[in-house]
Amino acid sequence: MAQSNITAAAAGAVKASHVRYLILFMLFIVTTVNYADRATLSIAGSAMKSELSLDPVTMGYIFSAFSWAYVLAQLPGGWLLDRFGSKKIYMWSIALWSVFTVLQAGVTWMGTAAAVVALFLLRFMVGLAESPSFPANGRIVAAWFPTNERGTASAIFNSAQYFAAVLFTPLMAWIVHAFSWHHVFTVMGIFGLLLAMIWGRIIYSPKDHPMINPAELEHIEQGGGLVDMDTRKPAASSAKGKGYIKQLLSNRMLLGVYIGQYCINVITYFFLTWFPVYLVQERGMSILKAGFVASIPAVCGFIGGVVGGIISDRLIKRGFSVTWARKIPIVGGMLLSMTMILCNYVEAQWMVVGIMALAFFGKGVGALGWAVVADTAPKQIVGLSGGLFNMFGNVAGITTPIVIGYIVKETGSFAGALVFVGINALITVISYLVIVKEIKRVELKDA
């Protein structure tokens, strides 16, 4: 009996493992590549535009092709995640979007009309393949992290969009300068295929991971982590799914969150599509210089993203409600991001870069939507709930490139485009302060 007590005490004293940080690192790397593949067209865009004689509106539609599929496939992607689990679906997602990225290199040998059609279709397929990615990120964070760590975890994987610009934008710009624009697609696609294989070896659910110990599993579960998510019967696979979606759409809190995410993504897609073109066309930079300069606001966005998550989680630990711990960074960050409008009133390139850096720092601080999803998604349909959230948010990927394309074509300037983006940041503030009330997990009724 004494020996048994000693053994039990020793087991209780075992230090918790930290496998969840390895999982977060993988989410960060995969999301970095995800956003880099989305941005390939913006880096190759200036050279491609000249070679294929494309006008701004045509470029806007090509830029938007990704998001047409990405938006349409969000609910099916969320259902697949709830039905088959995050590991398998995400691995196939990475592999498929990488294949379609490689294929975009082939349009260089086509005529203008054929190249436009091929680019649109291939970007559409990349969007289709990437559709489960962010719902899977939110799902994995909800499973692997307790509530008071989710803000930071979500901010870290979400800030990968800026790190993608820091790491890959200069690299892709150099590839365009030294070789040709189509090699950007080849390099990024091959890298993604290698990453898909690594993902399959490292990612598991908390209860199945061979490296986790009971102490860490208990820490996650006691803190609110949904560790048994992939072992539950998926509610979204039944006929009840449509009824559950109606409940989500009728929830005032969630509608406010959806509106806010759409407006935040207007800023994101400006950066992913038109920002390098803005630096070249409006500010007279070379493609190579624009690639390096674009990384400066991206660094600030990355820092802001991490800072926003840390602030949010510290507010929770200090006794703030989840509602205000999420709202304070979101509102403050979006107000700061509106400063990009000031670029219309300065001429010096260094001032433009500085203002954009401040604006993207603010955008990073305020980009806590996925932490809110992890806090609010019904336990039965975390993947589907994340898919619905991401569907609304990424409608901005369709509208933003096209609206900016028309603004630039009609005015011959990006001034109106910057105002358009800034107004969307203000709408985010209004949505979170006026429409979104208490942030809490949604409880589903039998549909």
Task: Characterize the structure shown.
The model is unreliable at 1-12 (pLDDT under 50). With 447 residues, the protein is mostly helical. It has helices spanning 2-12, 19-52, 56-72, 74-84, 86-103, 112-130, 133-144, 147-158, 160-178, 182-202, 214-222, 241-249, 252-281, 287-293, 295-317, 322-337, 349-366, 369-376, 382-394, 396-411, 415-435.
Q: What oligomerization state is this entry in? A: single chain
- Biggest sheet, in brief? none
Mean pLDDT: 82
- Structural class by sheet pairing and helices: mainly alpha
Low-confidence segments: 1-12
The ordered H/E elements are HHHHHHHHHHHHHHHHHHHHH
Percent of residues in helical segments?
A: over 70%
What is the CA-atom radius of gyration, in angstroms? Answer: 22 Å
Strand elements, count: 0
> In one word, what is the shape?
globular
Distance between the termini: 52 Å
Beta-strand percent range: under 5%
**What is the overall number of helices?**
21
Descriptive keywords:
disordered N terminus; 21 helices; mainly alpha; globular
Topology summary:
Elements: H1 2-12, H2 19-52, H3 56-72, H4 74-84, H5 86-103, H6 112-130, H7 133-144, H8 147-158, H9 160-178, H10 182-202, H11 214-222, H12 241-249, H13 252-281, H14 287-293, H15 295-317, H16 322-337, H17 349-366, H18 369-376, H19 382-394, H20 396-411, H21 415-435
